[in-house]
Write a structure and sequence with these properties.
Layout lengths: L11 E7 L3 H12 L4 E5 L10 E3 L6 E3 L4 E3 L4 H10 L3 E3 L5 E5 L7 E3 L9 E4 L4 H9 L6 E3 L3 E6 L4 E5 L5 E8 L3 H7 L1 E3 L4 H8 L9 E7 L9 E7 L6 E6 L6 E7 L3 H6 L4 H13 L7 E6 L9 H5 L20 E3 L12 H14 L26 H32 L6 H28 L6 E2 L2 E2 L2 H5 L5 H15 L7 H4 L3 H30 L6
Parallel strand pairs: 1-2, 1-13, 2-10, 7-16, 11-14, 13-20
Antiparallel strand pairs: 3-4, 5-9, 6-9, 7-8, 11-12, 12-13, 15-18, 15-19, 16-17, 17-18, 21-22
Helix pairs in contact: 1-3, 1-9, 4-5, 10-11, 10-13, 11-15
The structure holds flavin-adenine dinucleotide.
Length: 543
């Protein structure tokens, strides 16, 4: 009798993550730390997605051609991650005068920007790419495959099949699409197909900075500082090449970064002449010393794996994803990730980490393996000294109280930022939601740190509600009402809003719309908090 030939065992990963950007890598690191078998794929031949740091051989500087800045005060996740990974940061160089150039035939005007231009912004030493390197270093060999572009997803029942444009399928029990929603909409096929509502929500979520281009020019020294210039410049005339310039120097060498003012189509037409145009604009701002630096230009609109057709065709808009994109599909086995899906910090690196965090809590963990602690990573955080549950609830309540105190000022800040970036639509509504989402996002970080002290596992859940949920949500009593009152009282006295009569004194229709939006955001937060408690207690999320 012929010997039976064993069939090859097809590997089914616990989780497949599509996208090795900040969101995908941060999530993979968390899940691997929890003992899950993870496969990350990325269409590009490099890690990092929109995080892209290049190095100037002539000056030895790291140059961020994608994201460069984060904010300690409002971005708790990236701040904590940098400290966990031992990465240092430094403030964005701002001291000195800014230049304003409104007429190309005139010299630029010097202005003192009181308080600086990039208030509170910091840069990672050695470039943002350090963050990507550090995250990838914690992943097991073979867990990331580059040059694999996902084309379709098929639900096969026991697992999901990921079909790349070329090469072998990947199989996984759960899938995370850690990529811009619009790319999901335009490039991926789903079997069974996505609902029209989800497709619409994906299509309606712009990819932050996707159609922008950034240029960094390096010099032996930051020579502009000696003349009292900050390196910040704003060019506002119609022939502007760089609309906004800033100091991107590292160490003793100098660098001027800038966002290119031409749109994607113009850049295509002027591609050959662009280096010369950048050179002459820098010289017009900072004199002949600014000629002949080493230029590095990154046109994100030409990046197939960042910029969708819709992003290229429409003016840049801040992303604000529908909450639908934070709901898993296919019976909790497919998740939308990527910065744009975050409730707070959407489009920023903070948003990428918030999305990773949300999904890390929602992903199911196999219960069968022994010897591995399968609890979410947050549970491994140190207990507060001698923490008891009551103390932990008290700590959480105190942090909510602090957030409530900060809310009116934060509302004003969000409003000011919107006005500064010329977003005049739904001012009150957007600023209020941003304030609420920021508080919810920070509360979830706080909750993660307290999970161990809260001893959630020994508490029962009834009808899908964890017994601690009510106690933890209690300090938010009356929160939406007080938030709205603070906003209306500010609006009524704000000169900046006097040009917007509806925002100055919102009518009943607008008030109702705002109230509904705030209620929806609250509901989403309350559900997320409950889900995290259930997941950590092992009541749910176990397959
Ligand atoms: C010029 C510029 C400046 C910015 N400045 C800042 C800043 O100062 N501060 C800040 O916080 N944020 C900034 N951002 C935004 C920041 O870069 C993003 O929020 C963040 O990097 C998003 O990470 P992500 O993982 O969500 O998405 P991405 O980085 O876009 O990663 C998605 C990954 O998915 C991959 N992918 C896409 N489609 C497929 C497919 N079909 N199959 C397989 N893989 C696929 C891509 O190759 C990519 O690697 C900036 C962005 C740009 C472009």
């Amino acid at each position: 009798m012929a010997e039976a030939v064993p069939l090859p065992v097809v590997r089914v990963f616990d989780v497949a993550i599509v996208g090795a950007g900040l969101c995908g890598l941060a999530l993979a690191r968390k899940l691997v730390a929890d003992g899950l078998d993870v496969q990350v794929i990325d269409a590009r031949e490099r890690l990092g997605g929109r995080v892209h740091t290049r190095y100037c051989e002539a000056t030895g500087q790291a140059l961020d051609l994608g994201p460069a800045w984060f904010w300690l005060e409002t971005e708790p996740r990236i701040t904590a991650l940098l400290s966990e990974l031992g990465l240092a940061s430094q403030p964005q160089a701002d001291p000195g005068d800014a230049l304003w150039l409104a007429d190309p035939s005139q010299p630029p005007e010097r202005r003192v920007e009181s308080g600086g231009v990039h208030v509170g912004a910091r840069r990672i030493k050695g470039g943002t790419g350090q963050l990507i390197k550090a995250l990838a270093a914690d992943l097991p060999p073979g867990s990331v495959r580059l040059g694999v572009a996902l084309h379709a997803l098929r639900d096969r029942g026991a697992f999901i099949e990921l079909l790349p444009a070329t090469g072998h399928p990947v199989r996984a029990r759960q899938v995370v699409l850690a990529m811009p929603p619009r790319l999901v909409h335009e490039r991926l096929q789903f079997d069974p197909p996505l609902s029209a509502a989800v497709q619409d929500a994906l299509a309606a979520t712009p990819t932050w900075m996707a159609a922008q281009a950034k240029a960094v020019t390096t010099f032996a020294q930051p020579f502009w500082r000696a003349a009292g210039h900050s390196g910040n410049a704003f060019v506002r005339h119609t022939q502007a090449v760089l609309s906004e310039v800033f100091d991107a120097s590292e160490g003793d060498a100098g660098a001027l970064g800038g966002f290119i003012a031409l749109n994607a189509a113009q850049r295509e037409n002027f591609r050959r002449g662009l280096p010369m145009l950048i050179d002459s604009q820098l010289a017009q701002l900072y004199g002949p010393q600014a000629h002949h630096g080493h230029q590095f230009v990154q046109d994100w609109a030409e990046e197939t794996w960042t910029c969708s057709v819709a992003d290229r065709a429409s003016p840049p808009e801040p992303p604000q994803a529908s909450p639908l994109l934070r709901q898993p599909l296919w019976a909790g086995r497919v998740f939308f990730g990527g910065s744009e899906t975050a409730a707070h910090g959407a489009g920023h690196m903070e948003g990428a980490l918030e999305a990773a965090d949300r999904i890390a809590h929602a992903v199911s963990r196999p219960k069968t393996r022994t010897g591995i602690d399968m609890r979410p990573a947050a549970l491994h955080l140190a207990r507060p000294a001698d923490g008891t549950r009551a103390e932990a609830i008290g700590v959480f309540a105190a942090s909510v109280l602090t957030l409530r105190g900060l809310a009116p000022e934060r509302y004003r800040l969000h409003l000011t930022r919107q006005l500064a970036s010329q977003q005049f639509e739904q001012l009150t509504q957007r600023a209020l939601l941003a304030t609420a989402d920021q508080a919810y996002s920070e509360s979830l970080v706080r909750l993660d740190h307290l999970l161990s002290a809260l001893d959630v596992a020994s508490t029962e859940a009834v009808n899908g509600r964890h017994a601690l949920t009510t106690a933890l949500l209690a300090p938010f009593e009356g929160w939406n009402k007080s938030l709205l009152e603070a906003a209306l009282s500010f609006n009524g006295t704000s000169c900046a809003l006097s040009n917007f009569p509806l925002e100055h004194q919102p009518d009943a229709g607008l008030l109702r719309a705002i109230t509904l939006d705030l209620a929806a955001a609250w509901r989403e937060f309350a559900l997320e908090l409950n889900t995290r408690l259930l997941a950590a207690s092992g009541t749910a999320q176990i397959v």
